[in-house]
Design brief:
Elements lengths: L1 E2 L6 H11 L4 H22 L4 H15 L4 E7 L5 E8 L10 E3 L5 H8 L3 E3 L12 H5 L4 E7 L7 E7 L7 H53 L4 E6 L4 E4 L1 H6 L12 H8 L15 H6 L4 E10 L4 E13 L5 E10 L1 H38 L5 H32 L6 E5 H15 L5 E6 L3 E5 H17 L7 E8 L2 E7 L34 H11 L3 E7 L3 E9 L11
Parallel strand pairs: 14-16
Antiparallel strand pairs: 1-5, 2-3, 2-7, 3-4, 5-6, 6-7, 8-9, 8-12, 10-11, 11-12, 13-15, 16-17, 17-19, 18-19
Helix pairs in contact: 2-3, 2-6, 3-6, 10-11, 12-13, 13-14
């Protein structure tokens, strides 16, 4: 048994050269044929031959040049436990491509991989380093030599030659076999690299095709949207506008790519609803590039083609990388001219209707009151009828006043008479007045922090009246209504609480909208126009405050509004 230690080095080469001077012509001819076989295999590999053909040629060259009965090339399978015969010479039919050999010490091939060096088998009957696989027993293998076909990350497998009769293998034989294995190793690595490259190229092509397909789909969606889409890069240059956006700009199919945001505003002729031009930091795309999410920004644009103005509503958001950094912005703009014009017609109708109703209601109420005051001997039935007319006139008058308020809000003509107000007194007076007409409810003042605000007394009373009226209206069981005034930082907060029917969660987002009635069509529909909370929000907002609520259906609601304190006056200082 002979184990070959190490692989050929410079010293080995010199030693072989010295030995070559004493070799016989036959031996020199054999080495020349071996070198030619290695060179031919290398040329075949460089020519681009397939891996199967190279393995077959390598196995054939090994058997032929070493006068062996058998040769085989084994591939180590991914599990690392078995080797598959990929090529071979001399074996029975059906073994090449299907025969498996155990790795490890269960075979010479496995032992070669463990030793990481060539292994020579001189006599199978006397071998004790590894077991003989059934394949060798079946073919009466006696001697052989095996070398490793190396790989970049792990060995590909084994190249071996075998004889059925006992023989020795020289160092030159082993070097020849290793040279073949090295050529095969290089070819295998090249083939694997080519396969990996082809696989990568296929994936790239697939990604490119998918990307192109998705880009076409996205372009189709964008171009068929009714809304205008405007995209800018981080420097504020327009990079994409869809067909609807091009139409808004009055262009005919040409992409306005490269325009700055200011140029886009100029082309659109964009301005605020009151006619003011947008400032540099007010433009939706500019604000989105700064990281802001712009919601429902209304504006006017002027179309050069139609020579008419249009109302638009824009949403804009920043476009971010995966790491969160802003890389651009996108704005989606909708033409809401029809909606705005309808709103304007509605406002005009409300204003006209309110003014037209105001005079006849005043006349009707005046005559009813005059008759009630002058005729002491009026029959009870007639007095009751006049009382009904008087109350109906009051109700219509409240409706008219609400409509007039709505008209004033939208026209921006609500005049506030501002004065310092000691808020607990105002709230207490309203609560006392409301208590006089409350037949089923107790109105309790639970908190009265001494706070001073600046406001219009009549308008703030109107807000408190609206909140208390709603609390009583939607508390049919007659539960107490609690009213309080408290200090919250730099604000005074008025709070009205009830334990009534509450507001359904799905309707809470609309509660401050004009003409919205949360209980329409339910058992708690007690009438009204649905403008009280809308008017209250507008009044509070014009005082620099805000209004909000908390509500749970079936448990009641808490409505609150805040007003800024008069500077320098708070809980310790009163009027």
């Amino acid at each position: 048994m002979v184990g070959y230690q190490g692989r050929p080095g410079a010293g080995d080469t010199q030693q072989r050269r010295r030995a070559a001077s004493t070799d016989s012509p036959a031996e020199l001819g054999a080495r020349a044929r071996q070198q030619a076989a290695v060179a031919h295999l290398g040329e075949h590999a460089l020519s681009g031959a397939g891996l199967t053909a190279l393995l077959d040629e390598g196995a054939a060259a090994a058997a032929r040049e070493l006068a062996a009965d058998y040769s085989k090339i084994l591939e180590l399978l991914p599990d690392g436990e078995r080797l598959l015969m990929r090529a071979g010479v001399g074996w029975k039919d059906g073994y090449v491509g299907s025969a498996f050999i155990e790795a490890g010490t269960g075979s010479q091939a496995g032992y070669t991989l463990l030793s990481d060096e060539p292994v020579v088998l001189e006599d199978a009957a006397a071998e004790d380093r590894f077991a003989m696989p059934a394949l060798h027993h079946e073919h009466h293998i006696t001697s052989g030599v095996s070398v490793i076909i190396s790989g970049r990350e792990h060995s590909f497998g084994i190249l071996g030659v075998y004889t059925s009769s006992q023989r020795s293998f020289s160092e030159d034989d082993i070097h020849f076999l290793q040279s073949l294995a090295n050529v095969l190793a290089t070819a295998i690595e090249r083939k694997r690299a080519e396969e990996e490259r082809e696989l990568l190229l296929a994936e790239v092509r697939q990604l490119a095709e998918t990307s192109q397909s998705r880009a076409a789909e996205l372009q189709g969606i964008l171009n068929n949207m009714l809304d205008g889409v405007f995209v800018s890069d981080l420097k504020g240059r327009i990079t994409l506008v869809n067909n609807a956006g091009i139409g808004m700009m009055g262009l005919r199919g040409e992409q306005p790519v490269g325009l700055g945001i200011a140029d886009l505003q100029s082309v659109l002729g964009m301005s605020h609803l009151d006619g003011r031009a947008f400032g540099q930091d007010e433009r939706p795309l500019t604000r989105a590039l700064a990281g802001e999410t712009v919601i429902l920004e209304d504006a006017i644009i002027f179309s050069p083609e139609s020579r008419r103005r249009s109302f638009i509503r824009t949403n804009a958001v920043p476009i971010r990388h995966d790491d969160g950094k802003i890389m651009g912005a996108v704005a989606v703009t909708r033409d809401v001219s029809a909606l705005i014009e309808l709103e304007q017609l509605k406002d005009q109708f409300i204003s006209v209707a309110a003014h037209e109703l105001k005079t006849p209601v005043a006349v009707m109420k005046g005559f009813a009151q005059a008759l009630l005051r002058t005729d002491d001997n009026m029959p009870p039935v007639r007095r009751k009828m006049l009382d009904a007319i008087n109350r109906g006139s009051d109700r219509i008058d409240r409706v008219v006043q609400d409509l007039l308020d709505i008209s004033r809000f939208h026209a921006g003509r609500l005049d506030l008479v501002m004065e310092k107000i000691y808020l607990p007194d105002l709230v207490e007076q309203v609560a006392d007045r409301e208590s006089l007409s409350a037949t089923k409810h107790q109105i309790r003042l639970t908190d009265a922090s001494p706070v001073v605000v600046l406001g219009d007394r009549d308008r703030l009373e109107q807000v408190v009246v609206n909140l208390i009226d709603n609390a009583m209206k939607y508390s049919p069981g007659g539960w107490d209504v609690e009213v309080g005034v408290r200090l919250a930082g730099k604000d005074a907060v008025v709070q009205v609480s009830d334990r009534g029917v509450g507001i359904p969660r799905e309707k809470q987002g609309h509660i401050f909208e004009r003409f919205y009635r949360a209980h329409t069509g339910t058992a708690f529909d007690y009438g009204g126009m649905g403008v009280g909370l809308y008017i209250s929000k507008e009044i509070v907002g014009r005082h620099g405050g805000r209004i909000w609520f908390e509500s749970r259906e079936g448990e009641g609601s808490v409505f609150s509004f805040s007003l800024p304190l008069v500077r320098g006056e708070g809980a310790d200082e009163q009027l």
